[in-house]
Amino acid sequence: MIQTETVTIPGQVHGYPQVAFGGYVAGLLARRVGTGTTRVDFRRAVPVGTTLLLPAAEPGHAVLTDRDGTLLVQAGPGVLDLSAPPAPSWSAAQRATAAAIASPKRQVTDCFGCGVECADGHGLRLFTWPVPDRPIVAGAWIPDSGLADAQGELPPEIIWSALDCPGGFAAWVFQDMALGAVTAALTARVRRPVFAGERYLVHGWAIRSAGRKHTVGVAVSTPGGELCALAEALWVAPRDAAAQPRPARRHPVAEVSGPQVHAG
Fold first, then answer.
1. Are 214 and 193 in contact (CB under 8 A)?
2. Are residues 99 and 215 in the same domain?
3. d(Cα 187, Cα 160) in Å, to the nearest integer?
4. Is residue 22 domain-shared with residue 127, that is, in the same domain?
5. Residue 235: Cβ-neighbour burial (10 angstroms; 0-12, 13-18, 19+)
6. Selection from 118, 120, 102 nearest residue 110 by Cα
7. Partner of 181 at 20 to 30 A CA spacing, among 69, 170, 217, 234?
8. Which domain holds residue 159?
9. Region annotation Disordered: residue ranges (predicted)?
10. pTM above 0.85, yes or no
11. Is residue 156 part of a domain?
């Protein structure tokens, strides 16, 4: 008999309150899918601090359900036909990160991906911001050792987490995505290991949008130009977004905590 695996997402691994961080959940399933490009589709919100099930799936696939068997997330082989725009320099990314942290418009949160209130090792502390004169958001990132395994390598859950928030920021900045949007799908490929204590550039950009749907790209690379991971994400705005008052033009990233897993 095949044993169904259980998993509980730690309470601090959230974006919106009590909702598990989308990139982390995606990486959790991608680890079980195996090597290559993986597509993860979110069907319902994943709660933190609750026992969830990883039932057996066909080879190359993975699913996450609640204890009643309701499908929350599914993953399988994906296709990534995407080229990343050139990453900024390390100094430009550092300036973008500094601007993100210093801006009075940026909400202070404990989002696992982009929350400044997360302690080192308990969140990515990955702060992206628009790069002047370029259609990208970017950040300079040195992963904390608390995010890595005993050899200092980041697990898939953390690498995929780094591919989440920057895409949401790009959609908010360049596509006027409504507040409260969520990650509906994330397709990614990890090309090389990522290690704690080393310098990485993370940048996101808009690809296309139609109605409530926004497609964005995110890349993680070394300052020397080696691509470590690449992703395309589909974000979906709330159904009532059209009824929400739109603020005057300013960085919409100032008013949100970051992307979280939810059904679109």
1. no
2. yes
3. 10
4. no
5. buried
6. 118
7. 69
8. 90-252
9. 243-264
10. yes
11. yes
